[in-house]
């Protein structure tokens, strides 16, 4: 996991429109970089739709939202289209970027241990440094915490 004040690790991934998106292209903007387990599941849909619902406020504060999951382009296209998501959803099928950001690791469900995405959100400041880290995110009201944090940085 990256620490507050640390330079965010730059990367390039493909989004739902098959465009290459590079993190450093957003230099000068605040970036909400969130890692989520799977398109069209209940928690991930709630989280994405919550970000969608406050997206205009986020943009007004000079910030952008970028979601990252191991799902492929077609899955992201369907998810974005079905829920009118106005932000980039990036494909990290080999979970390389999630691993670099500490958002991939051991999880437990129903007593079974497995490797997967650990729901994590980073707020990266205009200089490309980590301003806030939210590990093991609880979806309920998460967008409100994010808006508060962006407000503090603006």
Looking at this structure, what is the CATH superfamily?
Glutaredoxin
Which architecture name does CATH use?
A: 3-Layer(aba) Sandwich
Helix/strand order: EEEHHEHEHEEEEH
Number of helices in the DSSP assignment: 5
Shape label:
globular
If you average the pLDDT, what whole number results? 95
Can you tell me the CATH topology?
A: Glutaredoxin
Number of strands: 9
User: How many structural domains?
Assistant: 1
Radius of gyration: 14 Å
Q: Which structural category do the helix and sheet elements fall into?
A: alpha/beta
Share in helix: 25-40%
- What is the CA–CA distance across the termini? 24 Å
Strand adjacency order, main sheet: 5-4-3-8-9
Describe the structure.
The protein is α/β, with parallel strands linked by helices and 154 residues long. The chain is 29% helix and 29% strand. It is built from 5 helices and 9 strands. Strand 4 (63-69), helix 3 (73-82) and strand 5 form a beta-alpha-beta unit. The longest helix is centred in the first third of the chain and has 12 residues, at 42-53. It is globular.
